[in-house]
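Handoff note, outgoing to incoming analyst
You'll be picking up this chain. Sequence as last confirmed:
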Amino acid sequence: MQIAQANMAVLAGDSFRPGLEQIFLEHRDLVFRAAYRVTGNSSDAEDVLQTVFLRLVRLETFPEIANLPGYLHRSAVNASLDLLRGKKETFSLDDDPNQTEVVSTDHGPHSAELRDWLRHALARLNPRWAEMFVLRFIEDYSNREIAGIMKTSPAVVAVVLHRTRTQLKKDFKGLTRGSR
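Most recent structure output, in case you need it:
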């Protein structure tokens, strides 16, 4: 996928800091890929890419970040989840908000409907739980790596992931029962 070229000097206006353009050039693919994996949509991933770097541009002083790729990755995941939450508020299959409709296709377990359901289900979760789930099962980080990123213990990560999976299974079973 080709990521649209952006001129950081234009995005930043008068407050442009020269090092930020280099950071953008070196890490835009990482941010875009992380956002794309969460949103499943290149347009949304580009919006997240812009959001992450615009937030950096708007900072009064550029923070000292020990692990810049990790920081940007986490920012992309969080911005993607924020975007999905915003869409969830406007998403409706019908005028009746209590009406749920599941479109069945024979595309197997990786169907677009299943991915859409997961995105919306993640948007309804506690943000920290959703972030851990994305890092573990979409980004393929280990529990120990997630604990380091999120400044917690691997045991807490394991418990949260177990509870999140249990909740998602329960929601999915309720959804599939409702569609029969």
